Automatic annotation (TrEMBL), chain A:
Keywords: Molybdenum, Oxidoreductase. The keyword Lyase does not apply. The keyword Ligase does not apply. It comes from Aestuariispira insulae. This is Xanthine dehydrogenase molybdenum binding subunit apoprotein. The lineage of its organism: Bacteria, Pseudomonadati, Pseudomonadota, Alphaproteobacteria, Rhodospirillales. Residues 20-137 form the Aldehyde oxidase/xanthine dehydrogenase a/b hammerhead domain. GO terms for molecular function: iron ion binding; oxidoreductase activity. Transmembrane segments: none annotated.
UniProtKB/TrEMBL annotation, chain B:
Coiled coil: none annotated. Keywords: 2Fe-2S, Iron, Iron-sulfur, Metal-binding, Oxidoreductase. CDD domains: fer2. Residues 2-78 form the 2Fe-2S ferredoxin-type domain. This is Carbon-monoxide dehydrogenase small subunit. SUPFAM superfamilies: 2Fe-2S ferredoxin-like, CO dehydrogenase ISP C-domain like.
Length: 789, 157
């Protein structure tokens, strides 16, 4: 291993600019002649718009133009994934306008854009717009939305988007009939607001001389935005549309989707012939960024007399919000129900998912996307089943794990896991968490009047999204490959153009390590370029822990091509057969001789050739590759949480959080640990602090950092993390992905620990977030408002 | 419009602004220093923390006119050319940043925190960073960075 190669904790190349204030985020960009856009949003959840009076606002100081839905007659914002009903008919897919067309459907829905010389003027003028709203009843509650007479969309009877299933219900029901024991739970996966620290922003620009549009945007996948916005919404061909996603301040899924504001500023820039910058205030982010999770599930696990799982059935209602966001429809189905086997050998599984429209912000992927929901319901069921059948948390899991020798393992819910060793991961986690010492710690805590609990979660997830053929058969409207272009410069330095996008993950370092390792060149000689459709040919972007497993593999494939061509060049110069050229440590050698050529010399030769055989060898050294994975990758692990609860206040303190994860081969251990830390914090946040709440009128009650509880430094412990390794069997690096495991595995570990602490006090369940109020009320026998829902 | 002058990172600056202009807007839009970020509108997130006359301030919560005549240091003024301040270097060494958006405020808060008390426990570091939200790191490596930065600052004295 070289010290900047695979396996080294190389310090990040991107950090200098971030640490010195030289990062370039979208809002840091200012274009010549720029105007400012303010989006007027609906203050009500559901209303007809009977009229919009713009007269006063148009006369306000600094106003350049104001546009409403009447002006902006463009295509509907598309959904990227079609899901069929169980009868085979397609899902209900109502229009999703960028600016409201006669009706608003959630608080925050876009009604108009005011464009002015300054942001303050745009905002002040928006106050003068008089919208005549005829308020309609709001469908605010997921659990009852299907039964309401009010329709979010006239096109969607019963507020149903789709009624989907996987598995054979009758067969699974028969298993439950004969089961020795059935554990049943009603499980709520709380609605979250992703809250990347950089609010979304967009700058639209139009060049009338060339007819070219440029959109700077806070996106995880600029090419996907170009495709969705260009082809479907605004009908701008790709060669006239450049999308730039510069430094992006966190995404966590929320910046995957094509948002209305991107289309609005791009479209309007052509109308006013000046650049338009829009940036969300945080309160706008709460009302317009796609939210996450929000499932209500009835779940049951059937066990035989030996404690083996023999069947699982789930009935889930999943909130779509008011419109179908880009990936919304696949989250509760193909990213959730297909994970319900978990790490267990459960032979028969049935899951029904009803996707539901409500008058709330659209709901879509948030770190983990479907897999945290699956893991949570499964691990809560397993925890409860262990208590009901008298098994330990360790025992019930070990008894039901897919054994190490059973891989590749075909689950009953479509996925085939390629590799894993769940017992090894659990062993290591129990050791690192010192489970053996827990009873002593519990007794000691009790002597201080504290209730101490220990909770397990053992999970598997499917990421490296995605094998195009598989997702295509499941309804994805695009393949999910990745591209890489390796440009070797004449003096041997390298620029990698990747379709993946880094918004905190450290690709500029990890990807450069792949190149340094493969070509044997210093990491300083490698730059990673991403986030600009004018530089990178195409790419599907970053989500679903795919960047290394898919994007990194594309880089490896392109590197292979570079090495193959380099061997031809070396063979030509060294007057040997290219089959006899060996490449090692940055040198091309004629096998069995001391005749060699350094990589840099090969690069120079490629660009200053004198006598290349033209029919066999082209000048230049630049290669492109596309990689489409064979299968998903399957990171797995065990998270163990230890909490202490103060029964007087209900405050839950996470005193220890242990994560042992198998993410396949680790390229940069420092970065992998950082990814896991971040995921754990979001998982603990979901379990104990975070929850988006709407009132009956569809008003978001948690619309700022004053009301929505974000985890802060003093809410969290130091984490204990470790990795075990089984290699992914279908990519060359053996990598699985690490971006989401922390957020997927941890919430049930935390809640299981809370329940463990409270069990002897008679508490059997507690809903997320287990706030002090919820815990105190549970302990004192009163039902909390949250638990009652 | 009001003329507001101050010293930013050792350089005298001046701009005509509306009286309602926030200090962060003045720095970002009038002076062109975009390293100071805005992550919320309720003074919670701390992405905009800078130093005014040596004390950490959320620059979204102060008017530019209130800082008239003051000595202001932003994240751009912390390093000496390519030589990072010990706290910046500690964040890099300990992977105390991911997306980098909260980082300027986090580093400026950390410098102020350990300047006030060079012997902080980890618990005190966590309490001291309560006004800075990071969504990426889970704070584990930020705490490690602040501890290391504190030690490096002490050693440099």
């Amino acid at each position: 291993m070289n010290d900047t190669g695979i396996g080294a904790s190389v310090r990040r190349k991107e950090d200098f600019r971030f640490l010195t204030g030289q990062g370039t985020y979208t809002d840091d960009i200012n274009r010549p002649g720029q105007t400012y856009g303010y989006i007027l949003r609906s203050p009500v959840a559901h209303a007809k718009i009977n009229g919009i009076d713009l007269a006063e606002a148009k006369a306000a100081p600094g106003v350049v133009a104001i546009f409403t839905g009447d002006d902006m007659q463009v295509g509907s914002i598309p959904c990227g994934w079609g899901v069929n009903n169980k009868d085979g008919s397609p899902m209900n897919e109502p229009p999703h306008p960028a600016l409201a067309q006669g009706k608003v459907r959630h608080v925050g829905d876009q009604v108009a854009i005011v464009i002015a010389e300054s942001y303050a003027e745009a905002r002040a003028a928006a106050e003068l717009i008089d919208v005549d709203y005829e308020e309609l009843p709001a469908v605010a509650d997921l659990a009852t939305a299907l039964d309401q007479s009010t329709l979010v969309h006239d096109e969607a009877p019963g507020n149903l988007c789709y009624d989907w299933e996987i598995g054979e219900e009758a067969q699974v029901n028969a298993i439950f009939e004969s089961a020795h024991h059935v554990t049943s739970m009603d499980i709520v996966n709380n609605r979250l607001v992703p809250n990347a620290m950089e609010p979304r922003a967009a700058i639209g620009e139009y060049d009338s001389a060339t007819g070219e549009y440029t959109l700077y945007t806070t996106s995880q996948n600029p090419h996907v935005i170009r495709l969705l916005m260009g082809a479907f919404v605004l009908q701008i061909p790709e060669h006239k549309l450049r999308v730039v996603a510069p430094d992006v301040g966190g995404g966590f899924g929320s910046k995957i989707f094509h948002y209305a504001e991107e289309a609005i500023v791009t479209w309007a820039a052509q109308k006013v012939r000046r650049p338009i910058k829009w940036r969300a205030e945080r309160s706008e982010s709460f009302l317009s960024d796609a939210h996450g999770r929000d499932h209500v599930t009835k779940a049951e696990l059937a066990l035989d007399q030996d404690g083996k799982f023999i069947g699982l059935r789930c009935y889930t209602k999943a909130n779509m919000g008011a419109y179908l966001s880009t990936f919304s429809t696949c989250v509760p189905t193909y990213l959730h129900a297909t994970l319900l086997a978990g790490v267990y050998t459960t032979p028969a599984i049935y899951c029904n998912v009803k996707a539901v429209f409500t008058n709330t912000v659209p709901v879509d992927a948030y770190r983990g996307a479907g897999r945290p929901e699956a893991t949570y319901l499964l691990e809560r069921l397993v925890d409860r089943a262990a208590r009901e059948t008298g098994m330990s948390q360790s025992e019930i899991r070990r008894k039901n794990f897919i054994p190490e020798d059973a891989f590749p393992y075909q689950t009953p819910v479509a996925l085939q896991y390629d590799s894993g060793n769940y017992t090894a991961t659990l062993d290591r986690a129990e050791e690192l968490a010192d489970v053996a010492g827990f009873q002593a710690r519990r007794s000691e805590a009790a002597s201080r009047g504290k209730l101490r609990g220990l909770g397990y979660s053992t999970y598997v997830e499917a990421c490296g999204i995605a094998p195009s053929a598989v997702v295509g058969s499941l309804g994805a409207r695009a393949g999910l490959f990745e591209s890489a272009n390796i440009r070797v410069h004449p003096t041997g330095s390298v620029t990698v153009y990747t379709g993946s996008h880094s918004h905190g993950q450290g690709h500029e370092t990890t990807f450069a390590q792949l190149v340094s390792d493969s070509l044997g060149i210093p990491i300083e000689n490698v730059d990673i370029s991403h986030g600009d459709t004018n530089k990178v040919a195409f790419g599907m972007g970053t989500y679903g822990s795919r960047s290394l497993a898919v994007g990194g593999e594309a880089i490896m494939k392109a590197l292979d091509k570079v090495i193959t061509k380099s061997k031809k060049i070396a063979a030509h110069v060294l007057e040997a057969d290219s089959a006899d050229i060996e490449f090692k440590d940055g040198k091309f050698t004629v096998a069995g001789t001391d005749r060699e050529m350094a990589f840099g010399d090969v690069a120079l030769t490629a660009y200053v050739p004198h006598n290349f055989p033209h029919d066999e060898l082209e000048p230049g050294l630049e290669e492109q590759a596309f990689y489409d994975p064979m299968n998903f990758t399957y990171p797995a692990g065990c998270h163990i949480c230890e909490v202490e609860i103060d029964p007087d206040t209900g405050v839950v303190e996470v005193v220890a959080m242990t994560a042992m994860d198998d993410v396949g081969r680790v390229i940069n251990p420092m970065i992998v640990e950082g990814q896991i830390h971040g995921g754990l914090a979001q998982g603990i946040g979901q379990a104990l602090m975070e929850g988006a709440r709407y009132d009956d009128d569809g008003q978001l009650l948690t619309g700022s950092y004053m009301d929505y509880c974000m985890p802060r430094a003093d809410d969290l412990p130091d984490f204990k993390v470790g990795t075990t390794t089984t290699l992914c069997t279908h990519n060359s690096l053996g990598v699985k992905g690490c971006g989401e495991v922390g957020a997927i595995g941890s919430p049930p570990a935390v809640i299981n620990a809370v329940v463990d602490a409270l069990w002897d006090q008679g508490v059997r369940d507690i809903a997320m977030p287990a706030t002090p109020n919820a815990v105190w009320n549970a302990l004192n026998g009163a039902k909390t408002a949250m638990a009652a829902e | 419009m009001t003329n507001v002058s101050m010293t930013v990172n050792g350089r005298p600056v001046s701009a005509d602004v509306e009286p309602r202009t926030l200090l962060v807007e003045y720095l970002r839009e009038n002076i062109g220093l975009t390293g100071t970020h805005v992550g919320c509108d309720t003074s919670q997130c701390g992405a905009c923390v800078i130093h005014v006359d040596g004390k950490s301030v959320k620059s979204c919560t102060m008017l530019a006119v209130q800082a008239a005549g003051c000595e202001v240091t932003t994240i751009e003024g912390l390093a000496n050319g390519d030589d990072l301040h010990p706290m910046q270097a500690a964040f890099r060494e300990n992977h105390g940043l991911q997306c980098g958006f909260c980082t300027p405020g986090m580093v400026m808060s950390a410098v102020d925190l350990v300047t006030k008390n060079p012997d902080l426990t980890d618990t005190e570091i966590r309490d001291g960073l309560e006004g800075n939200i990071c969504r990426c790191t889970g704070y584990h490596n930020i705490v490690k960075s602040v501890r290391a930065g504190s030690n490096a600052m002490k050693a440099a004295e």
